[in-house]
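Re: the request from the purification team.
They wanted to know what the chain is likely to look like in 3D before they choose a buffer screen. I agreed to run a prediction and write the result into the notebook, where they can find it.
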Amino acid sequence: MAKSTGISGKAFLASVAKFSVSSWATLVFGILSVMITTRIFSPEICGMLNLFNSATSFIIAFCTLGMDGAFPRFFHEPPPGWNVKTLFTRCVSIAVACWFVLSLISVILYKPISSLLFHQESLLFMVLLSLKVLAGMLLTYFLLQFYRFGNDPYHYNIQQILTSFFDRLFVITAAFVSATVNVVLSFATFGSFGLALTYLFIQRKQVFSWKGGWHHPEMHEVYRFALFSWPSGIMFAVSGFIMPYLISSILDVASLGIFASAGFFVAAFGVLQNGFRTYWGAFMYAHYQDENSKIKKTHSYVGIFIILILAAFILFQHPMYLFIGSAFQGSRLFFSLLLLAPLLDLWQQTTCYGMSLAKKNEESLIINVSMIVLTVPTAILFMQAYGLIGAAYATAVIAVVRFLFATWRGQRYYRSIRSKRETMGGLCILVLMGISNTVFNDSLLMESGAIIGLIIVMGIVYREAFAELYHVLRSMRKA
C-alpha cells in the first residue's frame, strides 16, 4: 500500500474548481445560444442539428479504436523508453488512419449510409460528418486530454472555452446567411474544423514525437486495454445516438428538436459536473491506493449534491424556461426525467472505476451492450404508448439500470461506497423527484411540497455525511 500523500480537502476542491472555469464559460455560451437558437430556428432544424451532433459522437467512437481510452490510462505509465509524446503520437496516428478509411467508405456509399443516419440521401451531409468527426476526435478526445491528464487547467480551460464558443457562434452565424439545415450544418462543421487545425499547429511540438519507432515490446498492454475499451466506447456512443435516432424515426425531427431543448438543463448541470469529472479521472488513477477514505466520502457528498441540484432545477424550472422559445416549451413536462441520466452518470464516476483499475474493460463492454439491447425495445414500447414523454421515461429507466449494474461490478474490484443504505436511499430519492415533476407539473404547490419532503428524507438518509461535511467546511473556513 502506497503511503498517503495527505491531499487536503481544500486542495482537492481547488483542483476541481480550476478545471471548472471552462464549464462556467460554457454555461454562459449555452444560455445565450439557447435563447437565440430556439427563437431563430424551428424545432425541425434544431432536431437535425442534434441528430448530426449525435451521429458525430457515434462515428468518433468507431474511429478512435479505443486509443482515446488507452492514452489517458497509460499517460502516467507509458511503455519503458517512451514518453507521453511518443504514446500520444502512436494513439492519434492509429485513430486518424481509421478515420480516413471510414470516411472514404461513407463518401463512396453515401446514399445508403446517409439514408440510414439522417433519413435522406445527401453527399453533403456525409462530407460534413467526416470533417466534423475528425475535428471532434482531435480536439476533444486527444488534444484536450493531453492538458487534462497533464494537470494543466490553464490551457485546458482556454481550449474548452474556445471550442464551446466557436461551436455555438458558427451555428448562430448561419442564421444570418440562411436558416436552412445545409447552411447550419456547414457553418457548425467548418468552425470546429478550423479550430482543430489551429490547435494542431499550436500543440504540434508539445504532443508529437516520431522518435522511438512504431513498435515496442510492451505496447501490447496498451493495445489490449484499447481493444477492450473500444467496444465499450462504441456502446456508450450508441446509447447516446440511439434515442435521438429512434425519436426522429418513430416520431419526427421536430419532436427531436423539442426533446433536445431540454438539453439546456443538462448543459446547465454540465457546468457543475464537468470540472469534477475532468479532475476525478486523473485523481482516481493516481490516488486510488492512498486516498480510499476520501474517495468514499466523495461518493456520499456527490450523492447529496446531485439530489440538491435536481431539486433546485425542478423548483426553479418556470423562470429557467423563460430562456427557451415558445415552440420548445413542451419539454418542461419531462426535463427532470432527462436530467436523471447525467446526474447518475456523474455519481457513477465514484462507483465504477474499479473495472478500469482492475483492467476489466470487458465487463464495461458487457454492461454497455446490455444497455443498448434494453434501450431499443424500452424506447419503442414507451414511445408507442406515451409519445414524446415516453422517450423521457425510457431514458430514465436505462439510466437507473446502467447505474446499478456499473456500480455493482465496479465495487467488486474497488470499494468506494461506505454505506449501501445511503446509496440506495439517494437513488430512490432522485427517481421520485424526477417522477414528481411529471405527475405534479400543473400544481406548483403539490410539486414544491413533494420536493421539500424528499429533501427532508435526504437529510435523514445522509445525516452522517452531513455531519462530516459540516466539520470539513468549518475546518476549511478556519484554515
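For the purification team: Residues 1-5 have pLDDT under 50 and may be disordered.
Please add any questions underneath this entry.
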